[in-house]
Write a structure and sequence with these properties.
255 residues, mainly alpha, 48% helix, elongated
């Protein structure tokens, strides 16, 4: 149901100039009944000047009279043909001042990890403009050397469900165009719920320490160890010389 403009000021005027119930006024302006009662008691909207809905083409006198006679009657906003077809302007999402400095980092993250997203989708997710996105894509942004990619969900710029929906939509559009996705791109399309339910994949160790002693089977290593032990079982073998050398030594001693 459409609501009148300047709702609180309209409620002030209706409370001051009519005998319509608080419930009827609250339903018409989109406020709580207790808040309307606070207006009547002077606790709410102090200093707010009433806004005449009749003079401003929002209500008719007949509608007000019908509401005063019947407490169950609901006020209906006056039909205005000139206002038909008007829609709220759709632009970039509003981003609080405290988070606007984080937008370049989130844009860089989206451009890096989800290149399938269009500039329009990125702009809706983080509330930015296409020139800014283009500058980060082309790395011509004035602060590009200091920007680090950060997940916009972690920064609170968008919800995970919104990001998943945008990625799925981009993937469907890419598939309809007949483009083939790589394995990495397919993994990125997994939703958060699915990724949380997956088992952790075993990671390949980055260090190669110990690989120099690695063998395919333990039997070969055992055979080599046994052979090495058999060579040094007898301690006297270290000091025994060939027979010829021993004879020479004895001849020298006799001479």
């Amino acid at each position: 149901m459409a609501k009148p403009i300047m709702a609180k000021a309209t409620a002030v005027w209706l409370v001051d100039n009519t005998t319509i119930s608080f419930k009827q006024v609250a339903d018409f302006v989109g406020m709580h009944e207790l808040e309307v009662q606070g207006i009547a008691d002077g606790d709410v909207a102090q200093g707010v000047k009433g806004f005449d809905p009749i003079a401003n083409n929002q209500l008719t006198q007949e509608e007000i009279d019908a509401a005063q006679e019947n407490p169950l009657h609901k006020l209906a906003l006056k039909f205005n043909a000139a206002a038909q077809g008007e829609e709220k302007r759709r632009g970039p999402r509003y981003t609080p001042l405290s988070k606007r400095q984080d937008r370049p980092a989130s844009i860089l993250w989206l451009v890096k990890f989800h290149p399938e997203l269009t500039d329009g989708q990125v702009g809706k997710l983080v509330g930015t403009t296409k020139p800014t996105i283009q500058a980060i894509r082309e790395r011509t942004h004035w602060n590009i050397s200091n920007i680090q990619p950060i997940d916009p969900v972690a920064l609170g710029l968008c919800k995970q469900s919104e990001l998943d929906a945008a990625v799925q939509k981009a993937a469907a559009k890419k598939a309809a165009a007949g483009e083939v996705m790589s394995d990495d791109e397919r993994r990125k399309l997994v939703s958060t719920e699915q990724s949380l339910g997956m088992e952790a994949e075993p990671k390949i160790p980055t260090a190669i320490e110990g690989l120099e002693t690695f063998t395919l089977s333990g039997e070969d290593a055992n055979e080599e160890d046994d052979k090495a032990d058999s060579d040094y079982l007898d301690a006297d073998s270290f000091f025994s010389l060939p027979d010829g050398e021993n004879e020479v030594d004895e001849d020298e001693k006799s001479s």
